Please model this.
Amino acid sequence: MDHDLLFAAFVYLSVAVLAVPLASRFGLGSVLGYLGAGIVIGPFVLNLTGEAQNDIMHFAEFGVVMMLFLIGLELQPQVLWRLRRKILGLGGLQVTLTSLALMGVGMFAGLAWQTALAIGMILALSSTAIVMQSLEEKGWTRSPGGRSSFTVLLFQDMAVIPILALLPLLAMPESLALPHIGDETAQHGGQTATSLIAHLPIWAQGIAALGSIAAIILAGRFLLRPVFRIIAQHQSRELFTAFTLFLVVAISLLMRALGLSMALGTFLAGVVLADSEYRHELENNIQPFKGLLLGLFFIAVGSSIDFALILDSLLLILALTFGLLLVKLLVLAGVGFSFDLRGSQLALFTLALAQGGEFAFVLFSFATQNGVLGLEISGLLTAVVALTMLVTPLLLIAYERVLLPWFDRVQVPKEHDDIEDDEPRVILAGYGAFGTLVGRLLIANRIPTTILDFNPEQIDRMRVFGFKVYYGDATRIELLELAGIAKAELLVVAVGDADAATRLVEEVKRLHPHLTVIARAADRFHYRQLKQAGADIIVRQYLQSAMFMGQAILTSLGFRAFTARRRAQAFERHDMKMIDAMALEGLDDKTAASIARSASEQIERALHQDSAYHRPELALDPLESADFSAFGEDAELPLGLEPSPSPQATQARVKDSAS
Amino acid sequence: MESVLILFAHPILEHSRVHKRLLQALAGMEQVTLHDLYQTYPDFFIDVSREQDLLREHQHIVLQFPLYWFSTPSLLKEWQDLVLPQPGRTTQEPLDLSGKTFGLAVSYADNLAALELPSEPSAAIEAMVLPLRLTATRAGLRWCDPFLIPDASHLDDTQLALAAEGYRDHLLAKVYYQRATAGPGASRKQGSD
Model:
C-alpha cells in the first residue's frame, strides 16, 4: 500500500482518538489504549501501518527524549544530588542483579556465557516510557514507590551507555550475521558508527563525552537564561515553543553525534533548567509534543508485536515472558526491600518495573548487527519484551484494584518521602507594580509563594532579590496547574488585563471550587464581573491608595491627622458597601449612577455623625455609688465623686435628652 | 433573649495559651455569641451601629480580655468609648441597656500579692475592676461578679482545663439562673482555683 504522511497521520490519530478514551473508560489507562490501538492497525489485524512503521517507531522514540527533558525540569540539581546514593545503589543493584540472574537462566538453558550476559543486560532495563506515563496518570510519581521506580529508571538510562560499549566485546564470531554495522540503530541513545568521535581512542571519547555534558550544564546555567529572556521579550508564544523544541532537538543531535544517550542529554538539560524562571513555561510547551509522540511510540510498539512469530512458538514465548517477569519481580522485590520499601510501596515498585524496556528493541538490533545474538533469538526476545510491556498496565491495574485495597486494610506505616516538595501555599499570578508589593509582603512573612508573570524584565529584577518568580502567561490555566494550584491554598489574581483576570477566576473556580481566590479589580465594573465569576475576596486597586491620598490632603488643609484618617476610613467603608450592593444587583448604568449619587449623600451624612467625635469624657458627672472602702485609707478617690442615681435613672436621662 | 455576648479582645491571641483554651470551652455553646474584636476591627475602625445592634440582641454582656496595665486592651477601650450610650448625647436609635447584665472574664499574669493591691482578695479585685464597674453601671448595665484567671502565665494543663470548665459553667449559670449581683462586697474570686 502506498501511504503518504497525511494518511499515516490520519490512521494513527484516529485509532488513538478511538482507543484511548475507550481504554480510560474501562479504567485501563491510556498506555494500554495506545498499545491496543497499535495492535489493531498492525500487520496482523488491519495492516494499515505499512513499511513506514519502523520510521515512525524511531520518530516516536523522540517522545521518550522529551519525557526525560520534562522529568529533568521537575528535578532541581540539589534534589538530584540528594538522590545520588539511591540512584547508584538502588539502580545499580537492580541492573547488576537482574543481569546476572537472567544470565544464569540463559546459561542454564544452554547459551554461551557471552550471549547470556548480553541478553541479561538488555532485559534488565525497564521501560521509562510505560512506567512514568502510567505512574503519572495514576498520580503515583511522588509516592515512595514511584520515586524509587524513577531513580532506577534514571540509572538504567545511564547504564545504556556502558552496555552499548560492552556489547561488541561479547561478539561470537560464528554468529556475526552482518558484516557492516548499520546506522539505523543510532536513533535512540545508540552509540554507533555514525558517532563523530568513534575513530578516536577510548580516552579521547571519554573526554569528549564529559566535555559535552559539562558544556550542556554550563550553557544551561549561563547562556540559556539570557537567550530565553530575549525571546520572552517578544511576547510570542510560538517563538518560545519553537525555541524550546529547537533546544531539545539540538541537544539530542549533539548527544547522538557524540554517541551518548539523547534521553540522558535532554534530561541533564532539564535538570539545569529546573531552577530557572522559565521552568513552568517550558513544561507547558513541551507537554503536548511529549504526549503525542509517546502515544505514537506506544502505538508503534503495539503494531510491532509479531503475532505470527508468537503463534508459531506460542508456548515458548509465553514461558519466556512469564519467566522474565518472574525473575525481574523477584530481584526488584529484594532490592526494594533492602532499600526500606515496604508494603504497598514495595509492591508498586516491583510491579511497575517488571517489564522490558524500549531500549531493548534498539539494543537487540544493535547486538544482532554486532554478532552478539542470532537473528532468531533476538526476534523471539523482542516479542517477549513487547508482551511484557503489554502486561505492565495490567499488573498496575491489578495493583490498584486488588493489592492496594488489601494493603490499605492491613495498614502500612506511613513511609517518609525523601524529597520535600516545594509546594507553594500561595500562587501569585501577575507580578506588576501591584503584585510586587503583595509578593514582597508574603515573602517577608515567609509564606511559600510561587509567582508567575509574563514580563521578563520584571522577573529578572525580582530574581535578583532571591524571589521564586517564573516566566509565563499566568492567565493560562495549564501553567497554574503546573505551578501546583491543585495543592495551593490561595490564588492571588493581580494580572493587568481585566478580562483575562475575570476569565481566569471563572475557570479556576470551576476546576478548583474550594481554592480561595483573591482578585484585584480595576474598577467597579470589573468588581462586578469578578464577583459574578466567583472571586472570594476582591480588592479594588485604587481605593485604599486614593483614601490615603485624600487623608494626606485633609491633613494638609488643617484637619487633625486622626480626624482625617477617620474620615478616609469612614468613606472607604461606605463606598465598599455601596459597590458591593451594586455588584450583587447587576444594575444598568443609569440606575447605578443614581444609586451612586444618593450614596454619596449618605456618606456625607454619615461622616458628620461619626461617633468618633463623641467621646464620653464629659459624661463623668453622676457616678454610681461604689464601695471604695476596699482601697484602704490613703486611697485617693476620683474627682467629682458624689452619690449617683440608679442605673434606671441614668437611662431615663439619656432618653430625655434623646427625645 | 437569654443569650450571652462575649466581647473578646486579645491583640495577640496566637501567643495566649489561656485564652485559646477558654475559647475552646465555648465551642458548641448555642446561647453564646463570640465576638472577636481584634479579628473584626484590625484597623480599630469600629462599626458602632453594628456593635449596638449586637448589644440589643443579647441579654448578658461579657468582656473577655487579658489585663493590660490594670485595664483593657486598647481596642476594647475604644469600643467602650464609642459603643456604650453616652448620657446627654442624642442618637437616632437610642440604646437601652437596662436589665442587661455586664460581666468580665479577665486573665492577669501575676498573682494578687505581686500587684501591690490591698491584701484582701475581694478588695483587690474590687479595686482592679472599679473603672469598668463604674462604666457599666453608668451605661445602665447590671454588674455581675467577674470571672478571674489569676497567675495566668503559670497555669499547668490541669489548672487550665479546670479554668476553662469553670468559665463554661460561669456562662451557663448566667443563662439558666439569671444570677444577679448582690452588693459590691459580694464579688467572689472565681475560677482561680
Strands of chain A lie at 426-429, 449-453, 469-471, 490-493, 516-521, 537-540. Confidence is low (pLDDT under 50) at residues 175-193, 411-421, 619-659 of chain A. Chain A touches chain B at residues 566, 569-570, 573, 609, 611-612, 614-616, 618-619, 622-624, 626-627, 629-632, 635, 644, 647-648, 650-651, 653-655, 657-658 (CB under 8 Å). Residues 622-658 of chain A form one domain.
